[in-house]
Structure formats: C-alpha cells, structure tokens
C-alpha cells in the first residue's frame, strides 16, 4: 500500500492530480486513510456521495446483484423501470433515458436536440451554451463547455455551438436565432465558481425559446438530487425545462446518469437512434432508487435548506471579520462557494493537516459540497477549524 502512488503513476494515465492520501475505508461523512487518520469529507466525491458513505447503498447493490448484475437493454428490468417512474413522478419529465455519467447524459441530449431541430429545418442545429460553463469532457459535451482551457488541445470540436455571457440577457439575445435548436444551461455554474442564474435571465431564455422554437436543457449533473435544497435546482424558478441531465449523486457512488425528457420531446429519439450497453444497469438503478427514495420520502430537502442557510450565515460572518481573506460567499443549499482569492491552495493544505478535506474550483473558490446527510455537529466542527485556518492565513 505504501507504494500505491508509485504504481498509480506507472500504470494509470496521468490525467488526475492525486491527493497524497491513500484511503482505506469510508463511513458517513468521513474518510479514513491507511494510517487510521479520520477526515471530514467536505466535497463528497465532488457531489457524488450525497447521502455520505451510506452502507444501505451497499445493501441495495448486493440485493440486486444477487438476482442479476446485468441485462441487455433488449429486456425490461424492474429496478430500471421503478427508478424511471419515481424520477418522472417527482419532476416535469414524462420519460427517462439512462446513461453512465453526466457527460453521456449531455451527449444524449445533444443528439435529441439536433434531431428535434431537423424536424423543422436542416439548418436548425445550433446549440447555445454559456461562457464559463462545464458540461463534460467527451467531444460533444466538451464543445458546449464554454472554457477554452478545456477545449484548445482537442480542436476541432463539433461545429454549430454559439456562446453567450452567463446572466447577460443581451448576449443571449445576440446568440439566439431561428437556427437554434437548444439552449444548455447550468442553474448554478459549479466549475465556473458557484455562480447562480437570475430569474430575469431564465424568463428571457423561456421567451426566446418560444420565439425561435428551441429546447431548454438544464444541466443538473452537480446541482440535482437535493444538492441545492430542492430535488432539482430549476424548481426555484417559475418555468419547466424541456430536458434535464443528471448523474453524479444519482447512483450514490455507482456510475449512473439520466436524461429527463418532457412530453414535448419524448418521441424525438426512436428505436436505433441512441443507446448504451451499460446505461440503466440494474444494480446501478437499484442504488439510484434507494438514493431517490431517501430524498423524496424524507425531510432531507428541508434539512439541506436549513443547514445551507446556517453555513452561509456563519461564513458571511467570517467574511466580515476577515475581508482580506474572504472576498465573497455564495451558493444555495449545500453547494457553497467561498472566494478566498489567492489563498485557496494554502487553505486546502492547512485544512487537510487538520483532517478536513476541501475542494476548490475556478482558481480562487473553496467549493463546499459535503454530504447532504452531514450532521450539525460535523458542520460546527468544520466551521471551528475553518475559522482557525482563516485566522492563520490572515496573520501570515
């Protein structure tokens, strides 16, 4: 185990910046390394383990695996149908297509949207996406990720993508036209620094979608499944999307994604238009069913709203006390960004030394995306240690 990092570098493509820790086990909101040290996990696998490291997910996995692990999608499967039904019953959707990841969900949505546009005109194929957005790393999803740093090495990407400035109504109006088939939006830009959409922008997007007859696709890969205090982040706004893409926390740690489709566009893709060997895997869907039931059949969403409001209030107090370190606090529910300027890496290092694991994004943002099941005592533990760290940075 001591040379695991060396073996990792030797045999696995170097596409990730690994932490120095070697994790042996996980339980609840904590990770344990091979030396027995216990770490409070404040980014839950980048919003994957929304229920923490819940052993009942393992029970759901084993229960289904004891029946069968995989069936071809030529066969119906009870956990797959049950999860699709529960997703539809708790959203705008009439039908669901299952995938293995967020980027696969967005790829499927791109295909659906382009076929939708071709029903009206061969030229109606353009996709709109925001600068600073993130929708995935495969060819199509990378093309609608509005950040050149991810794109430059892999051009040419798929054509027909137009970008606009997030929350800038005039920029969106300039980008939209009769050739637009879809608008891709994050309600909160996660990789873009925890920046939330405005109601006015959503209202204009809906108006333009009616004027030009295009679909609105909401990427809830990071914000979905209760992260913001609603099952889906779009619920805060007075509109119904045409498509929502989800993944990450849907499977509770097992690869699973989905495309939620409205009645308007449920018949666009037909037999043979799209598919996935492992999409809708029965074991994954059994885990997803447990996760979704744990959210919609409990008071977890209300708890997330309360915990998030408490955290943001306390962090804003720290901002007032340490303005040289904390520039801004923003977010909703348990998706919170703390702009700490150029202190971000130092804060992460100090936190890990104090057994707190923190994630960062957009160069200056500490991104808090802990398990939704995090306890009040664990939140207080984080706040106490985080204040010690901010004070240490302030005095240096």
Give a written overview of the molecule:
With 396 residues, the chain is α/β, with parallel strands linked by helices. It has 2 domains: 147 residues, Aspartate Aminotransferase, domain 1 (Alpha-Beta Complex); 241 residues, Aspartate Aminotransferase, domain 2, CATH 3.40.640. β13 and β14 form a beta hairpin. α3 runs antiparallel to α10.
Main attributes?
4-stranded mixed sheet, alpha/beta, Aspartate Aminotransferase, domain 2, Aspartate Aminotransferase, domain 1, 7-stranded mixed sheet, globular, 396 residues, single chain
Largest sheet: 7 strands, mixed
Superfamily at the CATH H level of the largest domain? Type I PLP-dependent aspartate aminotransferase-like (Major domain)
Termini separation? 36 Å
Overall tally of structural domains: 2
Poorly predicted segments: none
- Per DSSP E runs of 2 or more residues, the count of β-strands stands at 17
Strand content: 15-25%
The succession of helices and strands, N to C, reads HEEEHHHEHEHHEHEEEHEEEHHEEHEEEH
Q: What is the assembly state of the chains in this entry?
A: single chain
Integer-rounded radius of gyration: 21 Å
Which term fits the overall shape?
A: globular
Helix content: 25-40%
Query: What is the CATH first-level class name of the largest domain?
Result: Alpha Beta
CATH topology term of the largest domain: Aspartate Aminotransferase, domain 2
Structural class: alpha/beta
Mean pLDDT: 97
- The helix tally amounts to 13
CATH architecture of the largest domain: 3-Layer(aba) Sandwich
**Strand order across the biggest sheet?**
4-12-11-10-7-5-6
């Amino acid at each position: 185990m001591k040379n695991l990092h060396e073996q990792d570098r030797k045999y696995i493509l170097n596409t990730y910046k690994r932490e120095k820790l070697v994790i042996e086990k996980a339980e609840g909101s904590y990770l344990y390394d091979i030396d027995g040290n216990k770490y409070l996990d404040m980014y839950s696998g980048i919003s994957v383990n929304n229920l923490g490291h819940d052993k009942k997910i393992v029970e759901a996995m084993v229960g289904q695996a004891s029946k069968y692990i995989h069936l071809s999608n030529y066969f119906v499967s009870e956990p797959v149908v049950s999860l699709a039904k529960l997703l539809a019953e708790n959203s705008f959707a009439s039908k669901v297509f299952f995938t293995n990841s967020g980027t696969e969900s967005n790829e499927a949505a791109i295909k659906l949207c382009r076929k939708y546009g071709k029903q009206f005109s061969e030229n109606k194929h353009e996709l709109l996406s925001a600068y600073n957005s993130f929708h995935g790393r495969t060819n199509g999803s990378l093309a609608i990720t509005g950040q050149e740093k991810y794109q430059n090495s892999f051009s040419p990407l798929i054509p027909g993508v137009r970008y606009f400035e997030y929350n800038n109504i005039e920029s969106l109006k300039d980008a939209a036209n009769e050739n637009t088939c879809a608008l891709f939006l994050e309600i909160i830009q996660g990789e873009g620094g925890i920046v939330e959409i405005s109601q006015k922008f959503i209202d204009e997007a809906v108006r333009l979608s009616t004027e030009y007859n295009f679909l609105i696709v909401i990427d809830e890969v990071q914000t979905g499944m209760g992260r913001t205090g609603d099952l889906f982040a779009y619920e805060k706004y007075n509109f119904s999307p045409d498509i929502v893409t989800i993944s990450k926390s849907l499977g509770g740690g097992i690869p699973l994604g989905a495309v939620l489709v409205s009645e308007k566009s449920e018949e666009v893709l037909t037999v043979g238009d799209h598919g996935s060997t492992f999409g809708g895997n029965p074991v994954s869907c059994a885990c997803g069913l447990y996760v979704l039931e744990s959210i919609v059949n409990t008071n977890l969403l209300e708890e997330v709203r309360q915990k998030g409001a408490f955290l943001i209030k306390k962090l804003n107090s720290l901002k007032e006390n340490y303005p040289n370190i904390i520039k801004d606090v923003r977010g909703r529910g348990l998706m919170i960004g703390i702009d700490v300027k150029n202190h971000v890496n130092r804060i992460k290092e100090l936190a890990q030394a104090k057994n707190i694991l923190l994630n960062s994004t957009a160069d200056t943002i500490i991104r808090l995306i802990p398990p939704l099941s995090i306890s009040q005592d664990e939140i207080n533990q984080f706040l106490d240690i985080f204040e010690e760290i901010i004070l240490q940075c302030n005095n240096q």
